[in-house]
Design goal:
Strand order of the largest sheet: 4-3-5
CATH class: Alpha Beta
Largest sheet: 3 strands, antiparallel
Strand content: 25-35%
Number of domains: 1
Number of strands: 5
Structural class: alpha+beta
Order of helices and strands: EEEEEHHH
Length: about 90
């Protein structure tokens, strides 16, 4: 029996490779809007954050998502991300 491949992605803050299900995807849509993508399939440029409150707070403090997605990010996006982390 063939084993199913597990998708791995890298957290932009910790640089850890984790399973896709253990990460949150933050997306810059083609319209320029920033959203937290719970499906992992939204159209646009994405960046992954570990589902950990400390990592999300560190991303907000260091503004790493703003550099990766090349757009200013509102605090409400980080609040949405914190609500969706475990």
């Amino acid at each position: 029996m063939k084993l199913k491949k597990i998708p791995m992605r890298t957290c932009v803050v910790t640089k850890e490779k984790c399973e896709k299900k253990d990460l949150l995807r933050i997306v810059r849509t083609p319209e320029g809007k920033i959203i937290v993508d719970l499906t992992g399939k939204a159209n646009g440029r994405g960046a992954y954050l570990k589902k950990d409150a400390e990592v999300i707070k560190k991303a907000q403090a260091s503004k790493i998502l703003e550099r990766v997605l090349e757009v200013a990010i509102d605090d409400s996006v980080y609040e949405d991300a914190l609500k969706n982390c475990e």
